[in-house]
Amino acid sequence: MPQSRNKNRNTRDTDQSPRKLYSYPKYWAECFGTAPFLPMSREEMDELGWDSCDIIIVTADAYVDHPSFGMAVIGRLLEAQGFRVGIISQPEWNSADAFKQLGKPNLFFGVTAGNMDSLINRYTADLRMRSDDAYTPNGESGKRPDRSVIVYSQRCREAYYETPIVIGGIEASLRRIAQYDYWSDAVRRSVLIDANANILLFGNAERALLEVAHHLASGMPIEELNYLRGTAIIRDQLPGGWTEIDSTRIDWPSKVDQIPSPYDYHDKAAKKSAASNAADPQSSKQEDQSTQPIRIIPLPLQRKEKFDAKTSYIRLPSFNKVTKDPVLYAHASRVLHQESNPYNAKVLVQKHGTQDVWVNPPPIPLETDEMDWVFDLPYQRRPHPSYGDAKIPAYDMIKTSVNIMRGCFGGCTFCSITEHEGRIIQSRSEESILREIEKIRDQVPGFTGTISDLGGPTANMYKLNCKSPAIQKSCKRLSCVYPSICKHLNTDHSPTTQLYRKARAIPGVKRVAIASGLRYDLALKDPEYIEELVTHHVGGYLKIAPEHSEDKTLSKMMKPGISTYDEFKRLFDKFSKKAGKEQYLIPYFIAAHPGSDDEDMLNLSMWLKRHNFKPDQVQTFYPSPMALATAMYYSERNPLEKVRYKSDKVKVIKDIEQRRLQKAFLRYHDEKNWPMLRQALHEMGRSDLIGDTDKHLIPKLSRNSHEKRNRRRS
């Protein structure tokens, strides 16, 4: 064990300089060495000489031993600590039998839905079932249950009732508190409660996972792991000695600070006990049994009160309240996102019936040497041999790509990357990235010389962070680039430019493509990077995402104005011409985003026509769990601003036909959409846009038109 059991059992995990991932003493089972692939059957365990697994990972994805697949990263990470790790991949979930195939794990089950939320994986934004699953052999659909984390956890509990269950991955991470669920059109409880799991790991979970594994290996009960960063637990009773910041309502009396608070507890003995407990971690077990009242400070007054930030938490509106009051849901979402900086975030607590979901602060980001260590683990970079010749589409897409960083400080409200990976960029070293390219060249079957992507959540945030560590640790800004690029943000792209040059100089590498999303407003700060990108890493087309043309909608997305796109296009065209290449930008747009009305979509449609864009693939807003835009969608309020009952409502399109109409505006050129668009334009009083010249959006209905003939046939 890295530290004494008593200290770890009782200390609140507030350390902002945690121990390195690779510094833990290894578990005794390290003597079994490294497995070629983590075993998926008893026969493989026998070949490795194992009588049991210490940890079993249950995943809804096919097992691919590649650092882009979560189960592989977690499995190899735990293996490197000396643990024997087995994989149960896409088990039959109608009984517990498949969950017994590797026997009972000595320490815990780790349950994940895989690289995607299971419902987003299975259903489109129109709530239609997808016909394939990219994370399954041969793309076969129906191999995972809806709400996989809940179903798998329940089956694990049936299989071995007393075995601890640790849930994680993006599905668990984005459902750690009460969250609006688009598929049931309702607010659901924290997945931790519905899954009947012992602990939830959110975000990049390496730090918390190693703490959990080593503590359980030392014999510590999982119930004592209360204060680990990046975890959520269920509490029947809150600890004594903590200060509660009450944020359960939004309209507090304006001069409440002039009135003695009935919640302000002044008992000197209680204060003395709280101070003693904070100083002596040995007393925390007694704290859990304490009946001392908690001091409650209403959120509007908390800045005027003196309290220990390390022993204070924010109480969110309860599950019952946010279910009945969408405005309080928006408020809770705003508070959660404001408490996302790991260096200043407070504990969040939300009542679910008689229990509290206790969400500890996010994990401290990994340092570069730790990122390198994780990505240098002995991945086979191939699917498990049991799949034979079956194709796994997601693997085929990423098998020659390299992840160079984690996190995103863009803060786009419709995206869940920030909620899961955080806003602080975690970058690998140049040497580690170049080593991985060489491994791809040497290990991946059929490598043709092309690296399909060198990026991450965003292509051009590599090694970009706040210039001031002190400011970064105190900042609560939701985006470093909206409404404008922060003056404290380092925007020097030269490390990325240098990386590109070295990557394409590796023997055997013919081309390095950049397929990750480009934050073009950020790229404008470094034209040399744009020239490098356009000259060497664009294969004729570059996909970027303005998302919309209208400021009213863009402000709800936290995206820059369309003039920024125009400026980037000017440089893109300039450098393409200089390189002697004919290249094009392929812009992506979203229909039916909160804040976007039909007038905005019409204006966007006219913008597309003026620029001669005829998008084939368009996206309808998808309310993913915990995203700020999802809070807008459900509540019709804007959590980017202080939420009030009297706040202006956000325009939200929920009717399925209206959502389809907005999507039709993006595909104005498709004659299948013309009848719907004609009717909408008439109703909007814009019949002047129906005609047969360039100034018109769609043509008139002619007697001999192909469209009319198709109508008659139907």
**Structural class by helix and strand composition:** alpha/beta
Treating each run of at least 4 consecutive H or I residues as one helix, how many helices?
Answer: 27
Strand order in the largest sheet: 3-1-4-5-8-9-14-13-12-10-11
Unreliable spans are 1-11, 254-291
Q: Write down the overall geometry.
A: globular
Q: Kindly report the oligomeric state of this protein.
A: single chain
Q: What share of residues are in beta strands?
A: 5-15%
Query: What integer is the average pLDDT?
Result: 91
Helix proportion of residues, in percent? Answer: 25-40%
Structure report:
Helices cover 33% and strands 13% of the residues. With 714 residues, it is α/β, with parallel strands linked by helices. The protein has four domains: 5-359, no CATH class; 400-518, Transcription Regulator spoIIAA; 538-653, Transcription Regulator spoIIAA (2-Layer Sandwich), CATH 3.30.750.200; 670-714, no CATH class. The strands form seven sheets. The protein has an eleven-stranded mixed beta sheet, with helices on both faces. Strands 22-23-24 form a three-stranded parallel beta sheet. A two-stranded antiparallel ribbon has the order 2-15. Helix 12 packs antiparallel against helix 24, helix 16 (430-443) runs parallel beside helix 18 and helix 20 crosses helix 22 (562-578). The N and C termini lie far apart (72 Å).
